[in-house]
Amino acid sequence: MSLTVAPPVLRSFHSGRSSGRPPRPRVLMTVRSSNTVSAAPILIKLQRDCATPLPVLRHVADAMAADMRAGLEADGRSDLKMILSYVDALPTGNEKGLFYALDLGGTNFRVLRVQLGGKDEHVVATEFEQVSIPQELMSGTSEELFDFIASGLATFAQKEAGKFCLPQGRTRELGFTFSFPVKQTSIDSGILIKWTKGFAVSGTAGKDVVACLNEAMKRQGLNMRVSALVNDTVGTLAGARYWDNDVMVAVILGTGTNACYVERVDAIPKLHGPNSKSGRMIVNTEWGAFSHGLPLTEFDREMDAGSINPGEQIFEKTISGMYLGEIVRRVLLKMAEDARLFGDCVPEKLRMPFSLRTPDICAMQQDSSKDFEVVGSILHDVTGVSPDLITRKIVVDVCDTIAKRGGRLAGAGIVGILQKMEDDSKGLVFGKRTVVAMDGGLYEHYPQYRSYLQDAVTELLGPETSKNIVIEHSKDGSGIGAALLAATNSMYQH
Ligand code: ADP
Ligand code: MG
């Protein structure tokens, strides 16, 4: 049966969309009455459950600040691990010489070299290469994996020429970005707690990964040593700080999410041992594990229950790229089952977990064509069904609801960090220009998400204070950041 639906029904579907965009042209269309009429209550309930009005944002920001404090007191006191990085000297721009970086965090590793020329010349030259790690090495022995990496580094180092120049008699120095959980006790050592992300290498857990790499480089006859072990968030902060002295916080929004910031050592009760020369240290919050006061839905709870780490990483599961598409898929599946969104049959493909990816929901939100053609073709790929116009509009509204909640909560988390820093140092954060360096594929490629994040920060801080807080993209800063930290922690004097 077909029915002509008048604009008022359409308008109500758009009530949750962001303001400031021109209204779409009103069109009369032919739709199946059953799906759209009964999908509307599911959408409205979703928008209500995902709503992030100012009091919710404020609660999240306050809880983030409180959890940070608890995590700084002692290990195990908080959802937030507040891992000490032992990075107490940040790049100044004066660094000079040749430095290397290695980034190991997934199925590839990246090697990079940079020639630094100090205040006047800055970055004279950089080069990098990417090497994929053979599957069998990801479940082999520790020695095999580190030998493979060291041999990749040795091959790369052999090609050092042109503007890259190592003074006679010097050992090459390397910043090692290692995105697996480690327990650090100094800037150049860290015990692997466990492998994650598909790695099951035997014989590394409980060992110092810096020693593993240093020994492998020695076996390869490579004259190089690790000067700094960092995680990617810390690398991003260092990379951005090199160009801008006001950078105090770094946030990654990619497949997962994390944040770090510059803390005063006298605000870290759990720090024992050698005092930092600068009186400051970068703290890695591991904020993906935050969980307080988040507006969650049945779809989040079901996704969490079916995940490999139920009950963990709840903030990450609400705001990061790995999950946004999957939450939308779960909503659409319910709409298909309970409201026949895609017609009489529920598309089988829609039942497959993670079949709708965050880049898909992002692409659907960019569709400005009158008939939502891109939305139609993505939905066709994902479900095998060609949905009518009103269905496409509902889907876009679902995407918007989930991206809006994610972006706004990420913004509230950032304000929580800034608030904590401000409370300890009255005026030194909100009273002057302070920069938050952002990186990661989600932040880089999803404009609506980015603007929802900024909106939340502005709403929470108010118009005056938010003028001082600059949230800016620092693309791929983490590789060069690790090399810069190798420079800052060089065994040679500058
Ligand atoms: P990683 O976090 O794995 O180190 P990236 O920072 O490159 O890598 O982020 C990749 C993630 O960014 C993807 O998993 C995806 O969730 C998200 N992403 C990539 N492209 C887009 C896009 N066009 N729109 C929205 N999200 C995207
Ligand atoms: Mg990354």
From TrEMBL:
Origin species: Sesamum alatum
Gene Ontology MF terms in the entry: ATP binding; D-glucose binding; fructokinase activity; glucokinase activity
Hexokinase C-terminal domain segment(s): 249-487
The keyword Cytoplasm is annotated on this UniProt entry: no
Enzyme Commission code(s) on record: 2.7.1.-
Keyword Transferase: yes
GO biological process: glucose metabolic process; glycolytic process; intracellular glucose homeostasis
A single GO cellular-component term on record: mitochondrion
CDD domains assigned: ASKHA_NBD_HK_plant (cd24020)
Keywords noted in UniProt: ATP-binding, Glycolysis, Kinase, Nucleotide-binding, Transferase
Protein name, per record: Phosphotransferase
Superkingdom assignment: Eukaryota
Family: Belongs to the hexokinase family.
Family matches, as Pfam families: Hexokinase_1 (PF00349), Hexokinase_2 (PF03727)
Domain Hexokinase N-terminal: residue ranges: 45-242
Pathway, per record: Carbohydrate degradation; glycolysis; D-glyceraldehyde 3-phosphate and glycerone phosphate from D-glucose: step 1/4; Carbohydrate metabolism; hexose metabolism
